[in-house]
Specification:
about 70 residues; about 0% helix; globular
Length: about 70
């Protein structure tokens, strides 16, 4: 995601589960394009993503590399 996330308003922030810290929420900012890997029974800890040739590759600390299909809206 490109752009400055530090400029979000208080209304565009939310707290992660069980944490008090407020973070910019891409969905509330109207900048979320897709959601993936939320239906997994095991934990997913993605720390980096790369878009290449129509697919999104996500590096997961616990499960390896995920390849997700990118669909245009």
């Amino acid at each position: 995601m490109r752009g400055d996330l530090g400029t979000c308003t208080d209304a565009q922030k939310s707290s992660p589960v069980n944490q008090a810290v407020q973070l910019c929420d891409l969905s509330k900012m109207g900048r979320e394009l897709a959601v993936g890997l939320k239906d997994r029974s095991n934990a997913v800890f993605v720390w980096g993503v790369q878009f290449l040739n129509g697919s999104v590759y996500a590096s997961d600390m616990l499960n390896g590399i995920w390849k997700l299909s990118a669909v245009s809206r």
